[in-house]
Amino acid sequence: MKRLLILVAAAVLTHPFGTAQSKKTVSCKVQGFAAKNHRAMGPHKAPTDGSCKVHQKNGFPMPDPGCTPGAINPTVTLDVLKSSNFATGCIRNKVESEDAKGAAYAWYALLAPSHNKGATQTCELDHLVPLELGGGDSMDNIWAQCGPSGVVLKERYFKQKDEVERYLAGQVKAGAMDLKTAQRAIAKDYTQFIEAAKHH
């Protein structure tokens, strides 16, 4: 009986309709889309180590607008976002490598934390305008978002911002908010959407 159960489980995992094979493949081939296109949303100075200052808004950290004004990929339109051939992986690490983005820690006078994964994650190299809202994968859209300490993972600042990103992406795709409006609003003050995202 035990042998039979093992065989059945193996069949499910290797069957083309099983969970192991059900991940949708994304081609990234969408008319008009260019992965490396990006445009800053404001003036952007070339930061040096320690030159960028985090400020607070409604109890949440916000990036230095001179270092991280936000950036968009103007080829990511609503039609592109809604295409089955598009996912954020089509943009990620196409302009800057993951290693290059690590410079943002030094800009904000922070040490990159070790063991920064799963339940022990304390910081995120965050896209101010998220990729799911057409954000650019460029350094003018990257900042180091850390803390607070002593809370569970879902209560860390970057996880709460993730909720805002999902909420706004849903609003845009549903036609309840214009894409450009959402991009400008999250770049200016993502904290204004924290409560709406929690209760949506």
TrEMBL record:
The residues the entry assigns to the signal sequence are 1-20
UniProt entry tagged with the keyword Signal: yes
Recite the UniProt keywords alphabetically.
Answer: Signal
| Top-level taxonomic group | Bacteria
Q: What is this protein called?
A: HNH endonuclease
This chain's source organism reads Occallatibacter riparius
